[in-house]
From TrEMBL:
Highest taxon above the source species: Bacteria
One Pfam family, short name: DUF2264
InterPro entries registered for this protein in UniProt: DUF2264_C, DUF2264_N, UCP014753
Protein name per the record: Uncharacterized protein
Length: 617
C-alpha cells in the first residue's frame, strides 16, 4: 500500500470552479481546527513548535487567522455553525481575569497582527461577534483594542493593522483618537513607489507582501471607507494588476519569492480582494481565473498534516524554510484567498466565465521590483536583481537568487559549512577554504535596460562581481565579471527538479555542462565561453531544501577562478519536457560580448527597490 500524504489535504477532489466549491473548501479547511480549540474557545494550539513570540500570541494566531475567510463567508450569507465559539473566545481572550486571556499588547507585538483579523471581522459581521456579547464583555473588548492601538507598530504593512482595528471601532460607535489613524495612513503612503508598487517598509524589499498585504488591506479599506485614501488604493490596484498577472503560470502556480511563503494561497489574495472591493482591474473572467487556478494548484499538494491541519511549509511540511515568526497557526493567513465569498452569487466575479491567462511569449520587465518575468512553456521564470533581506533567515535565498520559477521554486541551504554539498540553485557561490561559502546577499547597484538586468555585488569586501541576466526563453543567460585578489572555488546552479527513488533519474555531467532528467522535467546548465574551465555536476541536493519538492537534483558548474579578472558565462534551461536534451539543449542562445553588456549597464535605469525610500508629495 502506498501512502499518499496529499490525501489529507481537504482540497483534494474539490473542483474549485464555483462559489459553492470555494465555500466547501473554506469549511473543509477549517474543520480540522475544531479539536484544537481550548475549553474557553479563546485559543487554538496546534502543536508544540515555537515562534519568537509567546505561546499566548501563537494561540491567538491560530484563533484569529481563519477569520480572514470566515468573516466574508458569513457576510455573503454562508452558514458557519461555530460562531458561538468565536464570540465566547473573544469574550474570554480579552478578559484579564480569565485563564485564557490573550495577554497585554506591547510595542510591535504579534497580537497586533492578529487583532487586524478581529477588527476586519467586527467591522464586517458585528452581528456574529459583537451583538452576542454582554455589556462587560463589550467593555473588555473595546478596552483591549484601544490599549493595543497606543503602541508602535512595525514600519511596514503592520501599520494597516491599527487602521483595520480603527475601522471596527468606528463602526461600533466607539470614540478614539483618529489622529493616529491619519498618521498611519500618511506613513503607508510613504512606502508607495509608483505604478501600483510599494515597498514593504523602508527597505529594499518588494515581495508577495505587496499584493497580499499592502494592496489587500488597501482594497478592504476602499470598500469599508469612502475618502481620498480609498480612491488612491483603488487607483493603485488598477495599475498593479496588469503587472502582477505576469507572476502566475498557466496552471495557476505563482512565482515563490521572498518571505512568509507558508501563507501559500494568500498569494491569490490580491485577486480575491478585487472581488471584495468590486474593482474590475482586469476583466472579471481573468480575475476569477487567476484566483481559482491558483487555489486548484494547491489542491493536490501535501500541504497538511495527517489530520488535515495546514502545515508550516510550502509544497510540503517544512520547518527549514520557515521564518522565526511562523507558529503552527501562521499558515491560516492563506484564508485571505476566500474574500470573494463576501460577494453575492450574482456578482460578476462569480457569473463571469473563467478565462485563461492572456498569452504572452515575450519577457516583461518590471523595474520596481527589479525583475524580468519570462514565460517558459507554461512556467514563469522571474529573473531578479535589486532586493535584499539580511534581517531574516535565508534572506539570500529568498531575495537574492538570479532566478525564481513558478514550477521549480527555489531552495534554501541547510548547512553553511557544506560548500561541496550545497544546492546553489540559481546562485553563484564562492569559497576560499572549500568549506564555507558566500553568495549574493545584496546589491551595491542594480539596473534594468530593456529586458536585461545588471547588478554589482561583493561576496567579500575585496571581491567584486558584476552580473548580467538575459532572458532567452526557455533559456536564460548569466554573465559574471569577477575581480578577486585571491583564487576562489565557485559553484553555479541551474534549477532544482524532483529527484525520484531508486536512482530512476538520468544524470549527465561533463566538462562545461550538466543536466538531469526526471520523470517529467529536464534541467540543465551549460558553460558558454568562460575564461576558466568549469566541470559539470548533477548535484543531489540535501533533502527538504527546495520549497516545492522534498528531494531534488540541481545541475551545477564548478571550478576554480584565479586572482585577477574572470568572466563566467552560462545558459540555464529547465522545462517540463524530458525530450529537451535532443532539442533545445543542443542550441543554447548566443551571449553578448562583455563590452556590449557593460555599455548596457551604463544605460540602464536604476531598479526602484534600490533607490532611497520616498514619500508621497
Amino acid at each position: 500500500m502506498t501512502y499518499d500524504p496529499a490525501c489529507a489535504n481537504p482540497l483534494v477532489g474539490n473542483p474549485l470552479e464555483t462559489r459553492s466549491d470555494m465555500q466547501h473548501a473554506l469549511l473543509d479547511l477549517f474543520d480540522p481546527l475544531l479539536p484544537y480549540f481550548s475549553k474557553g474557545n479563546a485559543r487554538v494550539r496546534l502543536d508544540a513548535a515555537a515562534a519568537h513570540f509567546d505561546r499566548a500570541a501563537a494561540d491567538l494566531e491560530g484563533f484569529a487567522r481563519p477569520l480572514w475567510g470566515l468573516a466574508p463567508f458569513a457576510a455573503g450569507g454562508g452558514d458557519f455553525p461555530h460562531w458561538r465559539r468565536y464570540a465566547e473566545g473573544i469574550a474570554n481572550g480579552t478578559d484579564p481575569s480569565h485563564p485564557e486571556f490573550w495577554g497585554n499588547v506591547g510595542n510591535r507585538d504579534q497580537r497586533m497582527v492578529e487583532l487586524a483579523a478581529l477588527g476586519f471581522a467586527l467591522a464586517l459581521i458585528p452581528e456574529k461577534l459583537w451583538d452576542p456579547q454582554s455589556g462587560r464583555a463589550r467593555d473588555n473588548l473595546v478596552t483591549y483594542l484601544l490599549q493595543a492601538r497606543k503602541f508602535d507598530y512595525a514600519e511596514n504593512n503592520w501599520k494597516f493593522f491599527r487602521i483595520l482595528v480603527d475601522i471596527a471601532l468606528d463602526r461600533l460607535g466607539v470614540e478614539f483618537d483618529r489622529s493616529l489613524t491619519d498618521a498611519y495612513l500618511s506613513e503607508l503612503d510613504g512606502f508607495y513607489i509608483a505604478d501600483g508598487w510599494y515597498r514593504d517598509g523602508n527597505v529594499r524589499r518588494v515581495d508577495h507582501y505587496i499584493p497580499f498585504a499592502m494592496h489587500f488591506y488597501g482594497l478592504i479599506y476602499s470598500r469599508l471607507v469612502e475618502d481620498d485614501h480609498a480612491k488612491r488604493y483603488r487607483e493603485r490596484a488598477l495599475a498593479f494588476a496588469e503587472d502582477f498577472r505576469h507572476w502566475f503560470a498557466e496552471d495557476g502556480a505563482t512565482v515563490p519569492f521572498g518571505r512568509s511563503l507558508t501563507y501559500r494561497f494568500a498569494c491569490a489574495g490580491f485577486w480575491s480582494a478585487l472581488a471584495f472591493a468590486d474593482l474590475e482591474a482586469l476583466p472579471w473572467g481573468e480575475i476569477k481565473g487567476l484566483c481559482l487556478r491558483h487555489l486548484r494548484w494547491w489542491a493536490d499538494k501535501p500541504i497538511t498534516h495527517r489530520d488535515g491541519v495546514l502545515s508550516v511549509g510550502y509544497g510540503y511540511p517544512n520547518l527549514l524554510m520557515s521564518e522565526n515568526y511562523n507558529s503552527a497557526g501562521s499558515p491560516y493567513w492563506a484564508f485571505k484567498a476566500f474574500l470573494p465569498l463576501a460577494a453575492s452569487k450574482d456578482h460578476p466575479f462569480w457569473t463571469s466565465r473563467e478565462s485563461s491567462p492572456r498569452p504572452s511569449s515575450d519577457p516583461v520587465a518590471l523595474s520596481h521590483p527589479g525583475m524580468v518575468m519570462m514565460p517558459a512553456r507554461g512556467d514563469v521564470v522571474a529573473l531578479s536583481s535589486g532586493q535584499e533581506n539580511r534581517q531574516m533567515r535565508f534572506g539570500s535565498e529568498k531575495y537574492a537568487k538570479f532566478a525564481y520559477s513558478a514550477r521549480y521554486g527555489f531552495s534554501v541551504e541547510s548547512d553553511e559549512r557544506a560548500f561541496g554539498g550545497g544546492a546553489f540553485d540559481s546562485m553563484l557561490a564562492f569559497s576560499d577554504d572549500g568549506i564555507h561559502y558566500r553568495v549574493r546577499e545584496a546589491n551595491e547597484e542594480a539596473r534594468l535596460v530593456g529586458n536585461v538586468l545588471f547588478s554589482r555585488w561583493s561576496p567579500w569586501p575585496d571581491v567584486t562581481v558584476e552580473t548580467w541576466l538575459l532572458p532567452g526563453s526557455p533559456w536564460h543567460l548569466r554573465v559574471h565579471r569577477i575581480t578577486t585578489p585571491r583564487p576562489l572555488e565557485t559553484a553555479e546552479g541551474g534549477f532544482a527538479i524532483t529527484r525520484r527513488d531508486f536512482e530512476a533519474d538520468t544524470l549527465s555531467a561533463q566538462t562545461g555542462w550538466a543536466y538531469a532528467i526526471g520523470k517529467q522535467d529536464f534541467s540543465g546548465i551549460r558553460d558558454l565561453c568562460s575564461t576558466v574551465t568549469r566541470q559539470g555536476l548533477a548535484q543531489k541536493a540535501p533533502p527538504n531544501t527546495n520549497l516545492i519538492t522534498a528531494k531534488t537534483l540541481v545541475p551545477q558548474l564548478r571550478g576554480t577562478i584565479p586572482a585577477g579578472e574572470t568572466i563566467l558565462r552560462c545558459a540555464v534551461l529547465a522545462v517540463r519536457d524530458i525530450s529537451a536534451v535532443s532539442g533545445d539543449w543542443d542550441v543554447p542562445p548566443a551571449v553578448p560580448e562583455i563590452a556590449e553588456l557593460r555599455g548596457l549597464a551604463e544605460q540602464g535605469v536604476r531598479v526602484s527597490a534600490m533607490q532611497a525610500p520616498g514619500r508621497m508629495p
